[in-house]
Amino acid sequence: MLTDQIIRSAVRRALAEDAPWGDLTTELAIPEGAEFQARVIAREAGVFAGGPLVVAAFTETDPRVEIVGLAPEGAPFVAGDELARITGPARGILTGERVALNFAQRMSGIASLTSRYVAKVAHTRARIADTRKTTPGLRALEKHAVRAGGGANHRFGLSDSIMVKDNHLAALGAVDPETTTAALTKLRERAGHTTSIIVEVDRLDQLEAVLAAGVTGVLLDNFSLDDLSAAVRLIDGAVIAEASGGVTLDTVTGIAETGVDVISVGQLTHGARALDLGLDAGIDTGLDEG
């Protein structure tokens, strides 16, 4: 969830990076009392995210800046659409412009890519989820953008839930079915009853030992479609079946059709392209002149 503290902290860090000693151009070139009007315009189609960051970027530079007509989070748009109108002191708007656009472009890119994945699996039971492959310091913003695009959030961080991966099992000495089940059973006994335990497997023959430990979910990593289908049959609804590893827009539909519950896609955050959004001076009233 995006709190005001998270939003303001991210924006202040970005403004401090962009104008650590002030905006030299604006302060020397723009009269202090000058007013300015502008519109955030989409240069290409997509799904909008990052509106709260846009507002904060401008109001942090000058609280007198007003933003109206802001597109809702998750709203689809096409090239040429107006996403917000900005009015107020010119210095504040010009100083906040790049930070506002950077956040909106990045987050809208994530939301747009997520929406494409979600559309690919809409006819199935599978949910599209993100991962922890996020930009350091911006995880809350990027996971918000995934939700804006119709996706679901995986765990936010290492503190949220237990996910046992292959290296964890190796460190525990779980080298065969018997030792794997024993290690996971001890873990389940130590964990609180409300804590979920997800275990990664990369081979079908590992699945039975993991299920025997009474875990919450299984992460089927880099499975073939045939093995995914076989795993879903073995699980038979007893735990959450999650697929991951090398998921693309070309492969996600086939993965979803195997019957898995969740498909986690690292590309949503680490591979999304920033959308092209711009700030155009002037506001078109829609009235003819003359």
UniProtKB/TrEMBL annotation:
Keyword annotations of the record: Glycosyltransferase, Pyridine nucleotide biosynthesis, Transferase
Domain Quinolinate phosphoribosyl transferase C-terminal: 110-280
EC number: 2.4.2.19
Residue ranges annotated for the Quinolinate phosphoribosyl transferase N-terminal domain, each copy included: 23-108
GO biological process, one term: quinolinate catabolic process
InterPro entries, sorted: NadC, NadC/ModD, Quinolinate_PRibosylTrfase_C, Quinolinate_PRibosylTrfase_N
Coiled coil: none
Catalytic activity, as annotated: nicotinate beta-D-ribonucleotide + CO2 + diphosphate = quinolinate + 5-phospho-alpha-D-ribose 1-diphosphate + 2 H(+)
CDD domains attached to this UniProt entry: QPRTase
Family matches, as Pfam families: QRPTase_C, QRPTase_N
GO CC terms of this entry: cytoplasm
Pathway linked to the protein: Cofactor biosynthesis; NAD(+) biosynthesis; nicotinate D-ribonucleotide from quinolinate: step 1/1
One example GO MF annotation: nicotinate-nucleotide diphosphorylase (carboxylating) activity
The family this protein is said to belong to: Belongs to the NadC/ModD family.
Subunit details: Hexamer formed by 3 homodimers.
Role played: Involved in the catabolism of quinolinic acid (QA).
NCBIfam families: nadC
Protein name per the record: Nicotinate-nucleotide pyrophosphorylase [carboxylating]
Native source organism of the sequence: Leucobacter soli
